[in-house]
Design brief:
Chain A is mainly α. Chain A contains 12 helices and 2 strands, in the order H-H-H-H-H-E-E-H-H-H-H-H-H-H. Chain B is built from 13 helices and 14 strands. Chain B has 2 domains: 198 residues, Response regulator (Rossmann fold, 3-Layer(aba) Sandwich); 128 residues, Rossmann fold (3-Layer(aba) Sandwich). By secondary structure, chain B is α/β, with parallel strands linked by helices. The chains are: A mainly alpha, B alpha/beta.
Chain lengths: 307, 396
């Protein structure tokens, strides 16, 4: 096996993993602390992408557009929490699934009305559109490195927020024992709204980062939300550390599976069989991992302590 | 609120009553299945526009019959496509079922229509089974069989002296056919192949890294709809332009070009693709179609729209030959089989399997006189080309 290719693919895997982490971290916060199943989390990812894409054409610069789009997605998340999500907290999970599924359809249709069905291609500034040679033979797109850098910075920021701030303390406390937190006189409604808006920003940021790669498109949230759920199940619902590690594992498994599985299969079966079975099996790998985790460690790899 | 509701109710009742009162007017009902939601709507909407445009150009009539088109949304999923097809056949009792962008949706839905003894017309999908073993006298296509465009592309690659190639395509019926088609004609070596997850996968970082490492001269891809835009963007970001030439089928078209133009992805200008049609084709039907479509939408029609427009004229030729009786299947079938309607691609004929026998052209992406990005025919690759599955079809 070619080591340069392996290295590049590992970087690709880490990049995919960090994008997944941005989506999954918000999802795990909302699921873990608010005990709320938010299928529409992917819609916030899509909103982030579309808002940043539109603003790119207004401001003429993708990075400025991204900075402006972040508070917009936070506001959208806050408004959605206040108007729709709040009334669903007391319902059981099935009602929440139905409610947020409906929300997906509404948001998709709204996006269709506002931006049209064809999606938006997002141009990058020239300096981001090129490639960087890390060392001899290892050439990667500059933009992918930006995603990795942003993902790591956000992960570090979240780590600090969750472990070393008062809000983080409340978040951790909320994940462990919600009733006790509200019994101690914390304004749980405000905490919930903040957490939801934070989740929205994280998902929106992931959508913004992915837009110059895949375009902003209707239904793009649906493509990532299932994998994000897999990530939080593997990592342990409510655990930020779990989401981070599981996202990297899933990103690496997916990318390396897509890269090398067909070559591995060709060692044991005919070329034709390998070509058609490898994509199918590599698409299944993360679900197989999830099934194994559910079988042997049902609460995930890093469940929050004391639920 | 209550008043509005009562008024609406009354209006509905009146509409319902008058509907029964005037049920004497003859009507041809056409069920049209396409993708109107999800990202796939980027393809489905132009088809819807073209169908409505055709109805407008026909003055709302086919022969003595009023045209009624009922659109169905497949939501980009085979199971949903089959459901709406069943609804059109059983509940709406349509006379023709047409549309179908996606091969997997068509394959899932075809039986519901054909078993009910109705005509099925594909405006796009052309999976190998419907051209071969599963061909049916009541199935017609106004597009092509999946293998044909990539076969033409393989020929182009040979002509241009391309010796080694990397291939990427989505892992579903059409994706497989496209690669098989290419392999039928391409004489050079294929250094690697990736079938990617469909429709979910839009990040091709791993595959592009493999393609680059393979050292192939050129890359051939089939990524319809939004995946095409994603691919082209990542191809540029990966710095493959000038390293591996890009050859595509159904990836860069009038659906994606306006987006590329807006974002100024100049890399697609001058790229090549093969197709049976192009907006610059010089015939009366096409000129009228392209001009009205541009007037309506401000954009060039994609080939999907051209096929949808042709579908309606094919149906019109059948209805006009029916002698006023839509149960007269034999007359209608014979009329369609003769391909005597004015097609936007010019003249063509139908093979034994009711797939078109037609020319395929090499198209180049260019700027038009107004600076808009479009495609233009460069040369003819195949003349009167028949798909390779026709021999497997028992029909005469």
């Amino acid at each position: 096996m070619d080591t340069t290719l392996l290295f590049i693919q590992t970087l690709n895997g880490i990049q995919l993993g960090l994008l997944l982490f941005l989506v999954a971290s918000g999802l795990t916060l909302v699921f873990g602390i608010l005990d709320f199943v938010n299928l529409a989390h992917g819609s916030l990812y899509m909103i982030g992408a579309f808002v940043a894409a539109s603003l790119t054409f207004v401001t003429g610069n993708f990075l400025i557009a991204m900075i402006l789009a972040l508070p917009v997605t936070a506001a959208v998340g806050y408004v959605i929490e206040r108007t729709i999500i709040r009334s669903l907290y007391e319902r059981d999970h099935l009602d929440q699934v139905l409610g947020t599924f409906g929300l997906i359809l509404v948001i998709d249709t709204l996006a269709h009305l506002i931006w049209g069905p064809e999606g938006i291609a997002v141009p990058l500034p020239d300096w981001l559109n090129g490639q960087v040679e890390l060392f001899t033979g290892v050439v990667v797109p500059t933009y992918r490195l930006l995603i990795i850098a942003t993902g790591l910075a956000v992960a570090a920021g979240l780590f600090w927020l969750v472990n070393y701030t008062r809000l983080g303390m409340l978040i951790r406390a909320g994940a462990s024992n919600r009733t006790m937190v509200s019994a101690l006189g914390i304004d749980i409604q405000m905490l919930f709204a903040l957490v939801f808006a934070l989740g929205a920003v994280l998902a929106g940021l992931a959508g913004m980062l992915v837009a110059p790669i895949t375009e902003a498109a209707i239904g793009m949230g649906g493509d990532i939300i299932i994998t994000a759920f897999v990530v939080i199940i593997i990592g342990g619902i409510g655990s930020m550390k779990g989401a981070f590690i599981a996202a990297l594992i899933v990103g690496l498994i997916d990318t390396l599976g897509r890269s090398f599985l067909d070559d591995l299969f060709k060692l044991v079966m005919s070329t034709e069989a390998a070509e058609s079975s490898a994509p199918a099996v590599s698409a299944m790998l993360v679900y197989i991992l999830m099934a194994l985790v559910l079988a042997f460690k049902p609460s995930g790899l890093f469940p929050p302590k004391v639920r | 609120m209550n008043k509005t509701f009562s008024a609406a109710l009354a209006a509905t009742l009146i509409a319902g009553l008058s509907g029964t009162a005037f049920a004497q007017t003859k009507e041809v009902k056409i069920g049209y299945v396409t993708t109107l939601t999800t990202g796939g709507a980027a393809i489905g909407k132009p088809m819807e526009t073209a169908v409505n445009l055709a109805v407008e150009h026909m003055g709302g009539k086919m022969g003595d019959f009023d045209i009624k088109v009922i659109f169905g949304d497949d939501g980009f999923k085979p199971e949903t496509g089959k459901q709406v097809t069943d609804k059109l056949v059983k509940q709406d009792n349509v006379d023709f079922v047409a549309g179908y962008i996606w091969s997997n949706v068509l394959l899932a839905s075809r039986k519901s229509v054909l078993d009910a003894g109705k005509f099925l017309i594909s405006s796009n999908a052309g999976p190998s089974p419907v051209a071969g073993k599963l061909c049916n006298e009541n199935f017609f296509s106004t597009s092509w069989q999946n293998d044909q465009n990539p076969m033409a592309m393989g020929e182009v690659l040979n002509q241009r002296g391309v010796k080694s190639l990397y291939v990427m395509s989505p892992n579903y019926a059409a994706g497989k056919n496209m690669v098989t088609g290419l392999e039928r004609t391409f004489k050079g070596e294929i250094l690697g192949k990736d079938f990617t997850k469909w429709p979910g996968q839009l990040d091709f970082s791993a595959e592009l890294a493999k393609a680059k490492a393979s050292g192939a001269e050129a890359i051939f891809v089939f990524y319809p709809g939004k995946a095409g835009g994603a691919f082209v963007q990542q191809y540029q970001q990966a710095g493959l332009k000038g390293v591996m030439d890009l050859y595509t089928v159904f990836t860069i078209d009038a659906v994606s070009l306006p987006r590329f133009q807006k974002a100024n992805f100049e890399g697609v200008l001058g790229s090549f693709q093969t197709m049976f049609w192009s907006p610059d084709m010089d015939n009366e039907q096409n000129k009228r179609f392209v001009a009205s479509y541009k007037e309506k939408t401000g954009q060039y029609p994609p080939h999907y729209a051209a096929q949808a427009y042709d579908t309606m004229y094919l149906i019109k030729s059948a209805v006009e030959a029916s002698g006023g009786d839509l149960k007269n299947m034999d007359a209608m079938r014979a009329a369609m089989k003769s391909a005597s309607f004015p097609s936007v691609r010019g003249e063509f004929t139908y093979g034994n399997n009711n797939m078109p026998i037609q020319n395929f052209y090499l198209r180049e992406v260019v700027k038009d006189d107004d600076g808009d990005w479009t495609t233009k025919i460069v040369s003819t690759v195949f003349e009167k080309h028949q798909d390779p599955y026709a021999a497997e079809c028992p029909l005469k």
